[in-house]
Write a structure and sequence with these properties.
Blueprint lengths: L4 E4 L5 H12 L3 E6 L3 H13 L4 E5 L8 H14 L5 E6 L14 H22 L3 E10 L12 H21 L5 E7 L6 H8 L1 H10 L12 H8 L10 E4 L6
Parallel strand pairs: 1-2, 1-4, 2-3, 4-5, 5-6, 6-7
Length: 251
């Protein structure tokens, strides 16, 4: 049986890397993007090699829609080198952070968040659809902040809310091709996201733990295995859903 291939944006670090590693463990080959840190990307490719799986990393700013045609061309070339012409799974994970009050957020900050989290997801998915197998899977990343409101996250939360609505439209419009689309919405996770805010700030970490039914902040291993499982055939009938993976944060 032919192995599956996944594309993961922001796959060299944090939740993206954890998802990539868990897919590799399941026998899935990966193509992933990274924004700047080539050393981290090389590390993931070495890890894939150690598992006897294929991996290829590409530098891409997912907030720059003008770069997507070039990226898709590289994807096609890599797939051809692997003896394939289609991929199976798309995980739109790449993201950036903004902590600013509603009354302080500038148009430039707003655009930076929406270009990555909404416009980038919309148009990169659109550009990749001709290269995706029928019966494929799309997972978009949202956030608990689209459900509950914490001051300073209005632009980020609104962008993630847009991603959740977009995902339902993808599920509806891509259904004739057998492609599913779902949203995974993590709670606060201990990664280097937002400068390691949850991981490295004991006060923030404690506050998150107090807000969470399971009594701690999340870690990448709470998320990556869940996304890998959601992409598998065991969950083929899950479609158009928002699945929050937050340990019960803000209940």
């Amino acid at each position: 049986m032919t192995n599956k291939i996944a594309i993961i944006t922001g796959g060299s670090r944090g939740l993206g890397r954890n998802t990539a590693v868990n897919l590799l463990r399941r026998g899935v080959d990966i193509l992933f993007t990274y924004r700047a840190n080539e050393q981290e990307a090389q590390g993931l490719m070495r890890e894939a090699e150690s598992m006897k799986r294929k991996a290829a990393g590409f530098r891409l700013d997912t907030g720059d829609a003008g770069a997507f045609d070039g990226f898709v061309a590289e994807v096609r070339k890599t797939l051809a080198n692997w003896g394939r012409d289609r991929f199976d799974y798309l995980v739109n994970n790449a993201g950036n952070a903004l902590h600013a009050g509603f009354d302080q957020t500038t148009p430039a900050q707003f655009d930076e968040i929406f270009n990555v989290h909404v416009k980038g997801v919309y148009f990169l998915t659109q550009k990749l659809l001709p290269v995706m197998n029928d019966g494929g899977r799309i997972v978009n990343l949202s956030s608990g902040l689209a459900r509950f409101a914490l001051p300073g996250s209005s632009a980020y939360g609104a962008a993630k809310g847009a991603v959740e609505v977009l995902t339902r439209y993808l599920a509806k419009e891509l259904g004739p091709r057998g492609i599913t689309a779902n949203v995974v919405a993590p709670g606060a996770i201990e990664t280097d996201f937002s400068g390691g805010l949850v991981r490295d700030n004991p006060e923030i970490n404690k506050r998150v733990a107090e807000m969470t039914a399971l009594g701690r902040a999340g870690v990448p291993d709470d998320i990556g295995p869940m996304i890998a499982a959601l992409l598998s055939d065991e969950n083929r009938w899950v479609n158009g859903q928002r699945i929050e993976v937050s340990g019960g944060m803000g209940l």
